[in-house]
Amino acid sequence: MTFDRRTTPVRADLADERLRGLVEAERFTAGTHRRIACAVTSLHRHPSPEAPVDTQAIWGESVTVYDEHEGWAWVQLHDDGYVGYLRSDDLGAPDPEPTHRVRALRTFVYPGPNLKLPHGGWLTLNSKVAVAEIEGDYARLATGGFVYAPHLSALGTWESDPVAVAERFLHTPYLWGGKTSLGLDCSGLAQTALSAAGIAAPRDSDMQEARLGTPVPVTPGLSGLQRGDLVFWKGHVGLMVDATRLIHATGHTMQVLVEPLSVAEERIRLTSYGPISSVKRLPLRKG
C-alpha cells in the first residue's frame, strides 16, 4: 500500500495509532491535541531550520503532536492533514476553544482596547481565536490581548466569494510554502481564499486538482470559463477572476498578480509546467 508522505504520519520508529496494521513502525501513538500559538510557523520536512518548508500553520490551528525532541515537534495539521516538523515553542494548549476567525488580511493584537497602544503581535486571515468578551470596538481574547472586533467573524460565518478574498492578496510576495499576506505560493493562495469561503481545500496543487470541484472542458480558445474556476497545470494553480483573467501567485514575477489567462497559459506552457491539465468548478458557499 502506498501512502503520501505529506499527509501520512509514519516514520520507521513511530506512526499514528490509526495506521496500526497498515504500516510498519517500532511503536504507535494517538498523539496529543495542541494548537498553534504564534502568528505563523513553518512546517519543515525534517527537524531542522535548514530543511525544506512544505507549508505554514497559523494561530489557533489544531494539530496532533506525535513526538517532541530537542525543540522540534512532529505534527499533523488538522485542517489539511499535512505532516511535518515545527518548533515546539510555537505550540500552545488545546484550550480555549476558538469562537471566531480573523476575516481581515492582517490584524494587530494590542495590550488594551486602544489603537494607540504599541501592538504586541499580529494575526493573519483565517486565524482562529477565542473571544472572552467585546469591549466597545475591541474583542478581548481569552489568550490575552485585544483585537479590533470588526476584523473578526464568528466561526461558521464565511466569505461569499473566494476570488474577492484572493484579490485582497494582489501584489503579495511569492513565498514557497507560504499562506499569509507576508508571502504565499500558488496553492497557498487558493487554499487560503477557499478556506475563507468555508471550502476545505488540500494544501498542494496536485491534491487540489484531484479532490476539488467538477471538470470543465478546456477548449482551444479557453472559452466558457467563469469567476471562481480553478485552472491547473502540473505544479501550478490559479483562480479565474472572470471569463478571461487569472489571479495567481507566480514565481514569474514573484508576487500575486492578475493577468489574461491566454498570456499565462502560453508562458507556462512554453517555459515551465506545460499545458493546462484541467479546470475545476466549485459549488461555492454563500454567506
TrEMBL record:
Domain NlpC/P60 positions: 156-280
GO molecular-function terms, A-Z: cysteine-type peptidase activity
The keyword Protein biosynthesis appears for this protein: no
Pfam families named among the record's database cross-references: NLPC_P60 (PF00877), SH3_16 (PF18348)
Keyword Transmembrane applies: no
Keyword entries, A-Z: Hydrolase, Protease, Thiol protease
Similarity section: Belongs to the peptidase C40 family.
Protein name: Peptidase P60
Annotated organism of origin: Microvirga thermotolerans
